[in-house]
Specification:
The two termini are 12 Å apart. The protein has 5 helices and no strands. The protein is an all-alpha fold.
């Protein structure tokens, strides 16, 4: 359900997608950002460290950048343990500030972020290379 809106936007606004430098997905739940991944984009290591360098060290010294990083792999967010009483408001404020600073740095970067995917490692179970997630056509009707 979460990809319906973004998939529809991608489909409905190709001119925006063509001009987009980067998209930031800050959906890590109630804890502060501790890792920035490039979601497997080969060019991530040429941009993300540069953008992060502009962030004050008190906000960035705990952030790891395994680049280009794996594909989105979180599996514990949006569970029954993700409740309002666990919110750390100082972390959320810092996350919002960090996201705004990174978005600004990306917007000011004169070099376009490449769209090529890095080579994925071998799947240990199958012995075959892992495959990237492929975008699907968005569903416009809600499930019943």
């Amino acid at each position: 359900m979460g990809l319906i809106g973004s998939g529809s936007f991608r489909e409905d606004h190709p001119e925006v997608m063509e001009g987009m430098q980067a998209a930031f997905n800050q959906d890590n739940g109630t804890w502060r950002i501790v890792e920035l991944e490039g979601q497997g984009f080969a060019d991530a290591e040429n941009h993300i460290p540069q953008w992060l360098a502009a962030v004050p060290t008190e906000m960035s010294d705990h952030i790891e950048t395994p680049l280009p990083g794996p594909e989105y792999r979180q599996y514990t967010w949006h569970t029954n343990r993700d409740t309002y009483d666990k919110i750390v408001f100082d972390d959320l404020k810092e996350n919002a500030t960090l996201a705004a600073m990174l978005a600004y740095m990306a917007s000011e970067d004169p070099v376009r972020f490449g769209r090529e995917r890095a080579e994925l490692p071998i799947n240990e179970r199958t012995g075959e290379p892992k495959e990237w997630y492929t975008c699907f056509e968005p569903r416009r009707e809600p499930r019943r």
